Amino acid sequence: IEGEFAQRALKSTNPARLAGRCAVFAKTDMIHLQQKATPMRDIAMGLCESLARGYKSSVARGKEFLEVVSFQGGVAANKAMLVAFKKILKKNIIVPEHFYSIGALGVALSLRGKKSIKRFDLDNLNKEFPSKQEEENLPKLSLDYGKEKPSREEKDYEFLSDGRVIDAYLGVDIGSVSTNVAVIDSKKRLIAKSYLPTAGKPIKTVQDGLREVGKKIEGKVKIKGTGTTGSGRYMIGAFVGADVIKNEITAQAKGALNIDPDVDTIFEIGGQDSKFISLKNGLIVDFTMNKVCAAGTGSFLEEQAETLKINIKKEFEEIAFSSNNPADLGDRCTVFMDSSLVEHLQRGFPILDLVAGLAYSIAYNYLNKVVENRKIGDNIFFQGGTACNRSVVAAFEKILGRKITVPAHNEVLGAIGAAIVAMEEEAGESKFKGFGLSEVKYQMKSFECDGCPNHCLVNQVWIEGEKKPLTYGDRCGKYSEKEKIKKLKKIPDFFKEREKIWLSGRKKRKGKKIGIPRALFNFELFPLWESFFSELGYEVILSDETNDDIIHKGVEVVTAEICFPIKVAHGHVLNLLEKKVDYIFLPSLVDFEKEDEELKRSYDCPWSQALPYFVNSSIKRENYPTKILETELSLRENLEESLRKVGDELKENPLKVKRAIEIAKKAQFQFYNNLKEKGREILKELNGKRGFIVVSRPYNGCDSGLNLDLAKKMRELGMLPIPVDFLHLEPSIISQDYPNMYWNYGQKILAAARKIKKMDNLYPIYLTNFACGPDSFISKYFNEEMDRPYLELQIDEHSAEAGVITRLEAFLDSVKNREVLEKRPSKARSLLSRASLPDKERVIYIPYMDDHSYALEAAFEALGKKAKVMRISDSETLREGQKYTTGRECYPCILTTGDIIKVINDDHFNPERCAFFMGTAQGPCRFGQYRAFQEYILKKLGYEDIPIISLDSENSYGGLGIKFSILAWEGIAAIDILRKAQKLIRPDEINEGETNKVYLKYRDKIRKRIKSGKGVTGIMGEAARDFKEIKVRETNRPTVTVVGEIYVRHNPFANEFITDELEKYGLKVELASMREWFMYTNEMHKEVSLGEKKWWEFIKNRTRNFFQEMIEKRLASPFREIVKGYEEPEIEEILEMGEKYLHRSLRGEAILTVGKTLHSILRKRDGVVNVMPFTCMPGNITVAIMTQIEKDYPGFPILNLTYDGSHQANYLNKVRTFVYRVGAYHRKNS
């Protein structure tokens, strides 16, 4: 790689843009670039630059680089990487002489001068690195429904004896990993085929395939029609002269139906893509493809086999079948699986068990992440190259308990299907250029077009003997065929119409310049801002339309793993800074106007709310003269007040500001009216014709640069795209069934679903983005509502046009099929909260989060209810939870769902004697959706009569009243205090285990006392005396605080026992308390009731808060000496500290995490560990702010840890490095 690869890359003049998030996305981009004729040198250099950008954004995360940077490790041998880093970092980069082994040299040098060195013999090594642990294994693989191996051999076709030429049809399937060519006769019988690896050279591979097939049949057949399919179908279609270019979904279905007209389900797993197809009466009724992850594909198996040094074709399945105990490796992504395999090998797992486990992994990933909850039929075909691996077939059969058919020639069924389509759509003489194409020479060129701000990278293939090149990459069609442009002119562009309405109120002013980012909620609220500032005399400047430069600048500067639209918003802020505007208006928009009283909230997404805080942590504002106008803004409560503050900051006359506000509100109202009027006009003109509603947020549906010009692509395919806000969306039509849908755009999306159902000619395309938190739940409710086919598209910086077009084409086919089949019934359901308690005979099962769950159990039982804390989460919890989720949901939701499923799976489970407890909230975090989602799962399983109860202060704790409230609070507060004493004393105990013994003794006493309906004050005095009697060493240990998301920080399985791990390395751990959250919610309730002038609610909240604090102080009093220096701060103190970086109007745990971190610094702690679920919305806000805190408090160790159930490659390295930093910081400051 440092040789030929680097040499090629260094010859590049136009490096291609590739995704840098992970190897899988980069590989996908490389394949699509190859299929758009991008020269290999440009892809190679693009990969180097992608790695450098990924390092800057994902590893460095906003940290400063000094002028001279040392480049170390094996990759430093690649000279192209050195060039890439110099370009991206703009620093002087040196490669030291011993770059390969510099880490080992550092370890050796660190031992100099040390008096004692820990030496390892084999026994010590075994203790330090535990061998294989006892884990539940998966069933032995076997083919239980027939052991025949599908034929891949080609029988000689019997040509006509008199030598007459027969009519034939050619199909070419050009995929990411393999290229297949097939020729059939007029009876759809296979004449010849070729199956070759694409190897990054699609045109050459097609030439080789044509040569191979041509030798067998040339002169014996006349090609009457040619079809191409696969991700490279357009380029290869133009190259070979295709008559039909068809998507892979339809081609695979055609190939399967030719073998068995009764097939109802197709699993197709190729090299980089996997597909699920559902058929009815020979027609596609549903389909889906893998969205972003290649874990359930052939490429995944190939890479893991390479890690294990196993030949994928000759050895894999034989080894897999020989395993008696297949390892349960889960369904992790390719990158994590690679490290997981290494970890399992180090723990002593036999290779044969890992190979068998991989076969299961690909099946589980496909079923959980691709198929999800779709119906799987009885007649299942397994197609694609991966189906040739019988161990994967066996894994599917074991999991599903039914036969999986691998049809003959499964590896080329896509090509056969393309040939069948060519035959069915034959129209005159074929355009096929002949088998002589295999010898034609061609040349690839690329250049950057500077005709507009898009700066498209244009790729061309010049073919010998042809006057015009094949051209790709020009978004406007300037260099490519003009046919698409003619087609576009025939179909109205309603997105352009919307843009005209959006910008219709612009006024020319010559005052100071105020910039508005062309991003997020501004795609809806720009008329409001523009009118307000214009009326005050300012010139309003919109950032440029989203282009590659804006996207990549945004992606490079972000300091947390956030969604694509937020990354792009950063790029727009930078674009305005570069324009040197005087001001940029960057509000924290908390919520929108509430359109229905039944819907209690109408929040903006937390990440969108946090945009100014993200920008502060990622962009060096001191480098620009522009002033940022920040304000927290609620359209529901304080629009006028917030804009008055902006006016004050601009030193404008208050009367002038008041008038500007009124004019601005009228402009926004007019904008909404104009959208509705245009929508009514369009729907009337449709007159029953088919229309496609792009169901999206304005900022991802109406930003063509962000969504790969989706509307244009739809129009090129003959589809009529309509913006969702052209529909008259009334949230009131969903308020009765979704009262806790507290996101503004969630309300509109579900209202759109109901509106669409009323018109039989409308079909939705649901547009979302990777890591969109709200959509992980909203999309499921949308699916329940829909009574017709719809397409969900997930678009990000790594998305490629080919994948989007494939899905659109296949969706269009399924829509046509739907129109000849019966309408599917709607599955709409009510998500009304079941707040009231179940009857006494039902046992209330409570998820275990920490031992505080036992206090809740006891409080229920004190009131005569049966309650039981579920078993502590474990690997079974995770496995069961993953079966019923997609991985997009919060990790706590996955685990609590798994805990519920474990109860259901118990041999003694009785649905008539069961109820589940799940806490709730009213946004903006996703926690408030768990209960609704888990009801959805219970309904799927046939248990819709099992209640899931949610108790909160607003429903008087389900009728249990004040006694329940007091008992539960006493138990929770008492266990908080015991936990703190346990963690402070345990690291220094002389007699190992004594602290835990005391803790458990009094935890159980508290549990019994609460259950009896009595208080625990007396017990706390006894407990304090026993804790004081524990013998301890006098030490000066470093102390760290664990903060973050409440469930993950308290659930030891969820956080991989992080507090134990830190203690093992000699640290004392302070865990952010449970009471912190309760006191915070009290404070927020007080603020809301005060703001809404609900005086009685305000008094109740103040009273409750007073008694809770009084109870807690009484319980903590005996522990005063034990917890000295670690007393719980007042919640107002935490909030005030947090407000140094973000406003309290951003509800949720982010401000608590930030405030507690600053409190820990003030209290002279030696470090902070911030734990959170993967893609946690509040958690990623804190990750960004932690970057700023590290700059403001140089040297203070902060470790951000995310969890999703997968064993991360460098998790322990991160922890150990943090421990080292903590030790150094402690020694420096002691």
Report what the structure shows.
The protein is α/β, with parallel strands linked by helices. The chain contains 45 helices and 33 strands. The strands form 9 sheets. It has a 5-stranded mixed β-sheet, sandwiched between helices. A hairpin with a 4-residue loop joins strand 8 and strand 9. It starts with a helix and ends with a helix.
Strand count, sense and barrel status of the largest sheet are: 5 strands, mixed
What is the share of helical residues?
40-55%
Poorly predicted ranges: none
Q: By helix and strand content, what is the structural category?
A: alpha/beta
* Rg over alpha carbons: 32 Å
Strand fraction band? 5-15%
* Strand line-up in the sheet with most strands: 5-4-3-6-7
Count of DSSP H/I helices = 45
Global outline? globular
**Number of structural units classed as domains:** 9
Count of distinct strands: 33
Mean pLDDT: 89
Distance between the termini: 48 Å
What descriptive keywords fit this protein?
Nucleotidyltransferase, domain 5, 45% helix, globular, 5-stranded mixed sheet, alpha/beta
